[in-house]
Amino acid sequence: MKVAVTGGAGFIGANLCRALAARPEIDRVVAYDNLSTGDAANLDGSVAELVVGDILDRALLRDVLDSADAVVHLAARPSVPRSLADPVASHDANATGTVNVLEACRHAGAHLVAASSSSVYGATPELPKHEDLPTRPLSPYAASKLAAESYALAYGSSFGLPALVLRFFNVYGPLQSTGHAYAAAIPAFVHAALSGKPLAVHGDGRQTRDFTFVGSVVDVLTQAVLGRVTAGTPVNLAFGESVSIRQVIEIIGEVLGRDLEVCYGPSRTGDVRHSHGANDRLLALFPGLAPIRLADGLRQTIDWFATTGAYPVSTGRPAGARSATV
Ligand code: NAD
């Protein structure tokens, strides 16, 4: 069996390629990535092959995906702030790029598993977020992910493309990049804490997120590929463990055995206030999932940052920030 992973040199993609390459049922794993936010080094020591290419390059994409039995589509320009800085680039990569991947899958007759995002719920106030709620994107990133998942499902109904769309909720863990303006919260916190710097929080820290350890995401993606799982609607990939940013910082402090200095800055445009995913649809498709709980996942993440030394870069403090200790 050949599996292609777009965005395979990125954070989730490289974790996935490593896991897929270790499975006896899979003979070839090909990571297709333009290395814009990913890194070839994320695949060091793995037998996964890397093809450097862009999902906007339709000819190369079609060539590489041609003989694939399954495609996991993770390539995207992630992050809300990045999409505010350049909405057209986010649209091109996330929406147009997805249509290109769907065309290549259609040509290859491949099963598709595609990454969407909890951000599609946006301004919808109900909690927990379940898949039948209306979607109200608050950012160009969220709108582009909604377009991408709509296309994937439309290719299912129009062309019979076997597809599964998973809405990821705040994934964290080893290989997640940090030390740059668009870093996600957990790697930015871990990196700051290990560097002895204050943790920069956007807003009052009482906003909540449903954090998912990358190992749990990889487990679902692997089962989806091997079981050729499909669904006619999007499916939340969440485990219902919604916590506030303040609680996350407390746990990081507990793991490190010390109080952490925190500075609070203004909230960011496009960020949702609360996020908590319902997962009955996920558990119906994948019974018996055993997700890694937040405290264990944070411990593994901190260990990874500490042992690889992937942290000593300054995070900076948001404008108008004030400090406190948690
Ligand atoms: P990432 O930035 O580490 O991975 C994205 C990968 O896609 C990178 O390796 C990048 O180089 C590659 N890429 C970007 N544009 C490309 C293009 N035009 N052609 C080819 N490759 C391209 O981010 P990630 O966190 O691993 O995200 C993976 C997927 O999961 C994305 O689709 C993202 O929208 C989705 N997602 C992630 C989270 C999260 O919390 N990390 C949450 C919701 C959804």
Helicity level: 25-40%
Shape: globular
CATH topology type of the domain at 2-169 and 214-237: Rossmann fold
Overall pLDDT confidence: 93
Level-1 CATH class name of the domain at 2-169 and 214-237: Alpha Beta
Helix segment tally: 10
CATH architecture of the domain at 2-169 and 214-237: 3-Layer(aba) Sandwich
- String of helices and strands: EHEEHEHHEHEEHEEEHEEHEHHE
Sheet of most strands: 7 strands, parallel
What ligands are attached or bound here? nicotinamide-adenine-dinucleotide
What's the number of extended β-strand segments? 14
End-to-end C-alpha gap: 49 Å
CATH superfamily of the domain at 2-169 and 214-237: NAD(P)-binding Rossmann-like Domain
Percent in strands: 15-25%
Low-confidence stretches: 312-326
Molecular structure report:
This protein has 326 residues and is an alpha/beta fold. Helix content is 38%, strand content 18%. The longest helix has 22 residues, at 87-108. Bound molecules: nicotinamide-adenine-dinucleotide.
Layout of helices and strands:
Blueprint (H helix, E strand, L loop, with lengths): L1 E5 L4 H11 L6 E6 L15 E4 L5 H8 L4 E4 L6 H6 L1 H22 L2 E7 L22 H20 L3 E6 L2 E2 L12 H10 L4 E4 L5 E3 L1 E2 H13 L8 E3 L4 E3 H12 L4 E5 L14 H6 L8 H15 L13 E4 L1
Parallel strand pairs: 1-2, 1-4, 2-3, 4-5, 5-6, 6-11, 7-10, 8-13
Antiparallel strand pairs: 9-12, 13-14
Helix pairs in contact: 1-7, 2-4, 4-5, 6-8, 6-10, 8-10
